[in-house]
Amino acid sequence: MDSHKVSVDDVRSIAKLVKLELTDAEIEKFRQTIPQTLDVIDILKELDTSKTLPTSSVTGLSNVFAGDSVEATLSQKLALSNAKEISRGLFVTKAVFDRP
Amino acid sequence: MKKLNELTLKEAVEGLKSKAFSSYDLTKACLTQIDASDCELKAFVTVLKEEALEQARTADKTINDMGVHALEQHSLLGVPYACKDNFSTQGIKTTASSKMLENYFPPFESTVTTKLKKAGAVLLGKTNMDAFAHGSSTETSDFFTTKNPHDKTRSPGGSSGGSACAVASNMCIFAIGSETAGSLRGPASWCGIVGFKPTYGRVSRYGLVAMASSTDSPGSLTKTVYDGAYVLKVLAGKDPLDATTSLTLPDDYSIRGLESLKSLKIGKPKSYFKIDLEPAVRKQAENFTDLLKNLGAEIVEMNLLSPKYSIATYTILQRSEVSSNLARLDGIRYGNDRTSFGAEAKNRMMLGAYTLSAGYYDEYYAKAQKVRTLIVDDFRKAFSRVDLIVAPSMPCTALKIGESQKSPIFGELMDVLAEPSSIAGLPAISLPFGVDEKNLPIGMQFIGPQFSEKKIIGVASCVEELCQH
């Protein structure tokens, strides 16, 4: 079985993708455990899937649409009820641009 | 004589109908048991004492006003239950046992709890689980570890461990859980109760905190097969709020068990027995197939893809879906910020992001989706030859608390016998069948084709009846 290598930089760039801030200890842990897991899943290479189509859903359903009608939805008050920070009836988000 | 909290769902409904006791008495008995046991077992994250008693009083009033018809119209009227803490309950804290959602009060109600509410069930509280359902031992809960009622140094299994523990220790009449791959069957097996995972799409996922959306299936943990069927009757059906729910109408699940298993063919997959099973589990599995034979079934030894491929497929699919589902938790609209994720959630998101990332997508995610097709086809072929498949539910009996820390894919390894059928979206039931030398329960499962719940119930009830007499 292949032995996978994952570098500290690899771990950092994956963490960036899932917006996680990792400690050095966590980075080291993932550097070891990700290859361990990849070694286990390498077993799939034994199976020939060159002529197999992927399955993303087992229901056989496709193009399921909601009815074209207006439904009751959450009130603004309820929708905001779990937000840590609100301002004038809106969620406060992190800034996208820095102010000059 | 049984205490009220020890009653099965069937006995509870009959007692309420005949006014042998009130919902208040029944609910009070469960709350008393929670008071007595839960400080040690730790099955509940939230107990709703006053709310439950109030609901019970209302149920009693309806029963008094309408008589027995009340229970015909509302099939769970006045019956106290426990619900896994990943079902959104409006205005009631829903944490998924995570620090991330420790103070989250959903502004809406899940379809499952809405249906239970309409059927009149009394919600006793929300139960502990592996955080975000990531695990098979309830040890990854960000709050505390639930204990197995049969041996408090052991895990109840997971991720629906709190619900299974609550049923097995008679803190409720029945409980709701969810399974992505093994999270109902596993804890049912380790706690010695019945765990029923319906076909994917049979029960709505609306309002269920998402783990792996393509396999998440709500289901029940009950004291008997009949009770599981009774709950499924309430939960099953198309939901406009979940596009993956099936248009196929639910069958009538309230059937009697089959009298014999004559003319039934039951598959025994060789590959499931080749994996590393604990000797006591293996022995009971053989005894179980002998029992099925004695009941008239034809046991068909068959080849199915090895479950070891399902471990790999499931690991990739589930972690990929987890990394995508948990991306929505930004701490802006609800929940804490992303520094509050526990170790297991981070573990899964990291691998999921890796298997989905450019350069690795084809090698891992796309490959797993293709193997999923092989697994689905494999079962389809199998079910053209047999009615149901039988196997142990778990490779071993309840492990000591702490064992789950020994592998980064502990959950996947424990759920090996549930993963193939979950990946294919199939229904399955785990029922208790004997104990090992340490007196720990062993569970056996029946797996059926999509929407074969009625057949599964008929066969499982027949076996259960025989085991009880």
UniProtKB/TrEMBL annotation, chain A:
SUPFAM superfamilies per the UniProt record, alphabetical: Glu-tRNAGln amidotransferase C subunit
Enzyme class: ligase
Gene3D superfamilies membership: Glu-tRNAGln amidotransferase C subunit, N-terminal domain (1.10.20.60)
Gene Ontology molecular functions: asparaginyl-tRNA synthase (glutamine-hydrolyzing) activity; ATP binding; glutaminyl-tRNA synthase (glutamine-hydrolyzing) activity; transferase activity
Catalytic activity entry: L-aspartyl-tRNA(Asn) + L-glutamine + ATP + H2O = L-asparaginyl-tRNA(Asn) + L-glutamate + ADP + phosphate + 2 H(+); L-glutamyl-tRNA(Gln) + L-glutamine + ATP + H2O = L-glutaminyl-tRNA(Gln) + L-glutamate + ADP + phosphate + H(+)
This protein's UniProt keywords: ATP-binding, Ligase, Nucleotide-binding, Protein biosynthesis, Transferase
Enzyme Commission number, as recorded: 6.3.5.-
Assembly, per entry: Heterotrimer of A, B and C subunits.
HAMAP family documented for this protein: GatC
Protein name, as recorded: Aspartyl/glutamyl-tRNA(Asn/Gln) amidotransferase subunit C
Source organism: candidate division WWE3 bacterium CG08_land_8_20_14_0_20_41_10
Upper taxonomic lineage: Bacteria, Katanobacteria
TrEMBL record, chain B:
Record has ATP-binding as a keyword: yes
Domain of life: Bacteria
InterPro entries xrefs: Amidase, Amidase_CS, Amidase_dom, AS_sf, GatA
Amidase domain segment(s): 25-456
Biological process per Gene Ontology, one example term: translation
Function (record text): Allows the formation of correctly charged Gln-tRNA(Gln) through the transamidation of misacylated Glu-tRNA(Gln) in organisms which lack glutaminyl-tRNA synthetase. The reaction takes place in the presence of glutamine and ATP through an activated gamma-phospho-Glu-tRNA(Gln).
Sequence similarity: Belongs to the amidase family. GatA subfamily.
Protein name: Glutamyl-tRNA(Gln) amidotransferase subunit A
Organism: candidate division WWE3 bacterium CG08_land_8_20_14_0_20_41_10
Source lineage: Bacteria, Katanobacteria
